């Protein structure tokens, strides 16, 4: 099993004809993802060839998300569109009613995110991101920029604010494998939260252990800790990035802003431990804690 993304998922790429879109579509296809179309109104009716020779794949380009869905049955869109145009692309996907939109773009204005997040809630569309690496269900499908060859399928579920720490945790536990790994992004407003992923992993019969990676700033990890205490029966292992960060500084992600004692790594660690989560001091220690829990 997996959450949000399976081998049956049919993926379209908004921005597929751009340099980033082409590069990562090549990678997604190589990892077995069913990429069934791209969207670019200026290039509708054309196609893009990925790969060479016998392994080449022609992917059609459609003028709109709705047209792509009608023609292909797509149920996932991944957005590789510059920040100034991201809101329009996401709103188009939401209006078309595609169930899952994965927004890779960094630097999306928070006001834009707030607007399309509210629309997605109203329409029942799940967003992941923005400013995220996407998600992967190893051996099934890979949507975004996560390297597909780090690990294989297994029984660990991973949800992380940090892209690079997503990759590191996948590598550290590569011999055990993952049901799904999700990079939710570190912006102040994101479509899918730790809690959303925790609920899905709790309901997934093939996820045995959950690894949750947070970082300084905001109160998402404290809220996740409260949710775990009330609703999660599976073992959860955590890591919080930013123990050495100075207070009052913005560190990396736009959401990583610390004010006083609220939002600090120590406060988040204590909240998680109070909920029964084992929290590692380093990513490697966190991986070891997870390893000890997998049967």
TrEMBL record:
E.C. number: 6.2.1.5
InterPro entries: Cit_synth/succinyl-CoA_lig_AS (IPR017440), Citrt_syn/SCS-alpha_CS (IPR033847), CoA-bd (IPR003781), CoA_lig_alpha (IPR005810), NAD(P)-bd_dom_sf (IPR036291), SUCC_ACL_C (IPR005811), Succinyl-CoA_synth-like (IPR016102)
GO biological process, one term: tricarboxylic acid cycle
Catalytic reaction list: succinate + ATP + CoA = succinyl-CoA + ADP + phosphate; GTP + succinate + CoA = succinyl-CoA + GDP + phosphate
Cellular component annotations (GO), alphabetically ordered: cytosol; succinate-CoA ligase complex (ADP-forming)
Origin superkingdom: Bacteria
Binding positions for substrate per the UniProt entry: 167
Domain CoA-binding: 4-108
Keywords: Ligase, Nucleotide-binding, Tricarboxylic acid cycle
EC class (word): ligase
Active site: 253 (tele-phosphohistidine intermediate)
Pathway it works in: Carbohydrate metabolism; tricarboxylic acid cycle; succinate from succinyl-CoA (ligase route): step 1/1
Annotated binding of CoA, by residue: 17-20, 43, 104-106
GO MF terms, alphabetically ordered: nucleotide binding; succinate-CoA ligase (ADP-forming) activity; succinate-CoA ligase (GDP-forming) activity
Family classification: Belongs to the succinate/malate CoA ligase alpha subunit family.
Record note on quaternary structure: Heterotetramer of two alpha and two beta subunits.
Purpose: Succinyl-CoA synthetase functions in the citric acid cycle (TCA), coupling the hydrolysis of succinyl-CoA to the synthesis of either ATP or GTP and thus represents the only step of substrate-level phosphorylation in the TCA. The alpha subunit of the enzyme binds the substrates coenzyme A and phosphate, while succinate binding and nucleotide specificity is provided by the beta subunit.
Name by which UniProt lists this protein: Succinate--CoA ligase [ADP-forming] subunit alpha
Native source species: Cellulomonas humilata
